Amino acid sequence: MTEKTSENMRQALADTSLEAARNSVLAKLAQKSERPNAARLLKALALADEAQARRILALARGKLGGLDDGLRDLAQRKAQEDALRLKQEQALAEGRATEAALFGQILQAGRSHAELLTDPDKSPPVLFVCQICGYLIHTEAPENCPVCQAVRERFDKVE
Prior knowledge:
Structural class: mainly alpha
Helix content: 55-70%
CATH architecture of the largest domain: Single Sheet
Order of helices and strands: HHHHHEEE
Number of helices: 5
Oligomer: single chain
C-alpha cells in the first residue's frame, strides 16, 4: 500500500471504530428512553460498523507484524503519557474540568494496562474492567474504582 492509502486505512479504522462506539452508546440511550425500534437500529448499526472495522484490520493484519511486535507496540502506546497529559493540560487551560478529569482517568487506566502488558502471557486468569473509565484490575472488583470511583457493579469480569 502507498503511504496515502495506509493513512486512509488507519483513518477509516479510527472513524469506523468511533462510529461503532457512538452507535452502541446511542442504542443504550434509546433503550433507556423506551424507544425499542431506534435502539435495535442503532445496535445493528454498531454491529455493522464493528464488522467493517474488523475487515479493515484483517486487510492490514499482514502489515501489522507478529503478535510479539503488536504487544510490544501496544505496551509502548499505553505507557506514553505525554500526549494525554498535554490534552489534560489543554482542557484545564480552557476551563473544561470534566474533560480534563476524563483525560486524567484515561492516563491512570493506561498505566494499569501497560503494567499488565509487560508480560501478557502471565496475565491473570480473571480480569475486571471498569465500564466507566477502562481501569483493569486482576485481583477482584474493588468496592469503588481507584480511578473514577465507580461502584463494584460497574466492573465486568473477563475470564
